[in-house]
Amino acid sequence: MVAGDQMDGSSTTQRLRMTNATRLTLLDDLRDGSAEAWIDADSLYRPMIKGWLSRFMLQASDVDDIAQDVMAALVGQLPSFQHSGRTGAFRNWLRTTTVNAMRNCVRKKRGIGNAAYHSLDQSIGELDDPNSHLSREFDLQHTRWLVHHLLQRIESEFQSQTLAIFQMHVVEGVSVPDTANRLGVSQANVHTAKSRVLRRLRSYGGEALEML
């Protein structure tokens, strides 16, 4: 039952609280040059960027180069980045940084006769527009990726049914009635699971959720 979700043991609680403190100051830790924070950020964002780029039929080496450029920009520019407090501020910065890295790649490849790089110009222009369909796709992928990453950190605190409900309803966007029908639970259970997992994500993720 959803109602049975809880944390086990005081030692686990203490460990998670210590972890929370790190997540709440992720951007500050990155600015301070924390090696652990940089490893965490790289493991979070490099795969996401590479996964996003895979849709453009680029050479694997170019995908690696663009992702490396984005991470290098993160290292070089983050100290001067100031979060506005608005949801999506860091995500928008990341999208713009990805656009710039893609432009640099196209500039280097222009003239080699590969149609993929010529068609990439249009995609770059669309991605540069925050109101475009492609930008909304980027935002959605970023949100799903980050939530998935955070869910992995807290999944031991919830029963599998609770996580399945949250995944289907919140991450995949399935309606409450359809989620309830597919998983054989009440609609009240769906609302309860969503509320509990979101509350824990906000507690655990802190500033990381502001990066959505």
Describe this structure as you would to a colleague:
75% of the residues lie in helices and 0% in strands. It has 212 residues and is mainly alpha-helical. Helix 3 runs antiparallel to helix 4 (60-77) and helix 4 (60-77) packs across helix 5.
Which class do the helix and strand fractions yield?
mainly alpha
* Number of strand segments: 0
Shape: globular
Cα end-to-end separation:
30 Å
Uncertain runs: 6-24
Residue-averaged pLDDT: 78
Sheet having the most strands: none
SSE diagram, text form:
Blueprint (H helix, E strand, L loop, with lengths): L9 H15 L1 H6 L3 H19 L6 H18 L11 H21 L5 H14 L4 H22 L5 H12 L4 H8 L3 H19 L1 H4 L2
Summary, kept brief:
The protein contains 11 helices and no strands.
Keywords summarizing the entry:
single chain, 212 residues, globular
